[in-house]
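Input record, target 12 of the design panel.
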């Protein structure tokens, strides 16, 4: 039973599991990815719980920054498409540059999203 289900109770039994150095590092890395201690990680895995990972907040901030860039570029393109007077001096080369930047920013966002969804395993 999970610790949340037994408030005020302290666990009294300890299990000792011998592991190799590389196994120890792998288990610690998996626990860190899940945002939990090694003990809790092993306890929950051993009881058949599905471990839910945490999202790296640095990557979330990066996605928010990229999203802001896309919003600004999209707004600029929208102004040009509606013949706004503020974009009257924009030529075709400027618009093509904006479209290229939007595409590059979308690719950058895709790479960050891949890191969030499929974090690289530590050897």
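The sequence produced for target 12 reads:
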């Amino acid at each position: 039973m999970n610790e949340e289900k037994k408030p005020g109770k302290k666990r009294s039994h300890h299990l000792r599991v011998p592991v190799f150095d590389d196994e120890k590092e792998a288990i610690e890395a998996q626990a860190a990815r899940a945002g939990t201690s090694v003990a809790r990680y092993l306890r929950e895995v051993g009881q058949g719980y599905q471990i839910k990972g945490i999202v790296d907040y640095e990557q979330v901030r990066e996605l928010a920054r990229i999203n802001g860039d896309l919003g600004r570029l999209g707004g600029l393109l929208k102004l040009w498409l509606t013949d706004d007077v503020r974009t009257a001096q924009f030529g075709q080369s400027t618009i093509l540059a904006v479209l290229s930047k939007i595409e590059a920013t979308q690719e950058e966002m895709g790479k960050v999203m891949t890191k969030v969804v499929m974090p690289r395993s530590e050897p």
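The CA atoms of residues 66 and 108 lie 8 Å apart.
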